[in-house]
Design a protein that fits this description.
This is histidine kinase. It comes from Paenibacillus sabuli. The protein is α+β, with helices and mostly antiparallel strands. Helix 1 packs antiparallel against helix 2. The longest helix has 35 residues. The chain starts with 6 loop residues before the first helix and ends in an 8-residue tail after the last strand. The relative contact order is 0.13. Bound molecules: adenosine-5'-diphosphate and magnesium ion. Adenosine-5'-diphosphate (ADP) binds next to helix 5 and helix 6.
């Protein structure tokens, strides 16, 4: 019997392998990025190729980091965090990208928000992905509204309401499918990673079309009241 791995064991063996591989790819990638940056600085005004190389290296890096989460989706480092702070940090980090796309980010938080037990790094990755997707959905600009409130003592709800291109009804089911992307430079791993992370936080992620324009992404996270088993 020992020679047969159960399906879940096979999956976790595959996950280990994938995580290991991703980690191994990252180290040489970091070195490559460093040297490329150095060459760019010394290129004497002839920077275009190096900029393209940096962009492509960053694409590989993003694929690898999203893949790493898929391979090891379990929550490892739990802390009680203020969702508002996480949201504000991400909004600040992506501020210049928003400005470049003429996207205005408006935040509306309830005065009282309970802390949520989470792996801060992972939850930030979710927020980064959702906000990036929203910005990318508004190439001609628009507004992204970020709301956060506690519907009860048991859950915090965060909504990202954009005015972007939206998603046709029949394509909604494809979200979270690996490599499903409608973007020229997309990889279609972001939403899948978000689903995994939300699942491992005992939370949910939903997509809804807005009545006028764009979509709303809704995240629900359990508070300490309901997440004792995390
Ligand atoms: P990527 O961003 O690399 O395409 P994702 O997994 O992040 O991959 O997203 C998958 C697809 O879901 C996108 O290509 C896009 O078609 C759709 N999508 C995600 N978020 C939005 C959004 N806010 N508005 C419109 N489409 C979206
Ligand atoms: Mg994306």
């Amino acid at each position: 019997t020992e020679q047969f791995l159960r399906n879940s064991d096979k999956l976790s063996a595959l996950g280990e392998l994938a995580a290991g591989l991703a980690h191994e790819i990252r180290n040489p990638l970091t070195a490559l990025r460093g040297f490329t940056q150095l060459m760019k600085a010394r290129s004497g005004g002839n920077e275009t190729y190096f900029e393209l190389m940096l962009e492509e290296l960053d694409r590989i890096n993003l694929i690898v980091s999203e893949f790493m989460v898929l391979a090891r989706p379990e929550v490892t480092h739990i802390e009680y965090k203020d969702v508002r702070k996480l949201l504000d940090t991400v909004v600040a980090v992506l501020g210049s990208q928003a400005v470049m796309s003429s996207v205005e980010i408006v935040t509306r938080y309830a005065a009282e928000l309970p802390v949520v037990p989470c792996d801060e790094g992972q939850l930030k990755q979710v927020i980064v992905n959702v906000v990036k997707n929203a910005i990318e959905a508004m190439p001609e600009g628009g507004r992204l509204t970020v709301e956060a409130y506690a519907d009860s003592a048991s859950h915090v709800t965060v909504r990202f309401i954009d005015q972007g291109v939206g998603i046709p009804e029949d394509k909604l089911v494809r979200l979270g499918e690996p490599f499903y992307t409608t973007k020229e430079k997309g990889n279609g791993l972001g939403v899948m990673m978000c689903f995994k992370i939300m699942e491992s936080h005992k939370g949910t992620m939903r997509f809804k079309s807005n009545p006028d324009k764009g979509i709303t992404v809704e995240l629900k996270l359990p508070t300490s009241e309901t997440a004792e088993a995390l």
